[in-house]
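Researcher: First entry.
Model:
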Amino acid sequence: MRLFLLLPLLLLTACITPRETGPDPAAQEALRQREQQRRIEEYQRSTQVSLQDSEQQLLDLQREVRDLRDELARNQSRDQEAFDQRLDRLEQGLRQLEARQRKDREEIVSVLSKRMSELMASQPRGGNSGGGGVHTVGPGETLSAIASAYGVSSRAIIQANNLSNPDRLRVGQKLRIP
């Protein structure tokens, strides 16, 4: 008899299926933005390591040039020409390394500005289309990326906020967007 009472209940629960829902668009967007931010941070870390390596190489070459000059000063009577050639090679290496370092820095700024601009442009602005409002500076953001995201010029933001040094934005700093 118990089985007879349980059978309709089992059939009824077997017919109830959870409602199928599609993926939450807001959650997908948040996940996409977190992944993009993670990639930007990973790129930033790798370029920072590369930059630090270049800086260490530069310091090593500068120290070697200084040591060579000291040695040259102590040993004027020795083979002056060999020292001059070695010194010229080192100074040429220094110039090449400094040029590479400048290029790397420019590339880092360019790539990060572009990516930050894309990330900021993809985030909702809370009704600030066409500029206006206040922006809080986040880690790694540049003035050009912020200006691009709001569709205003960097100069307009500089003037609206009386920025004496626009290259020195602080994380958490509030900028009025004209």
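Researcher: Second entry.
Model:
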Amino acid sequence: MNKIWKFFQYGYVVIAIFFLVDAISNFGSNNSRAILSLLFFVFIILVFFFKRHFRKKVEKRNNQQ
């Protein structure tokens, strides 16, 4: 099950890259959408690191048992 979660966590990175590209493409024409996309990008990156940290913590705890 942990191997599946390892792959899913990188899905967050793919989605974050999509929002970053969207923000860059809309920066000159639609600044409000670009800012919103950048906020989503930052939020998704934070979620990625949080989930990765939590998954490693659970794996470490399971290995000690």
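Model: Note on the second entry: The chain has two helices and no strands.
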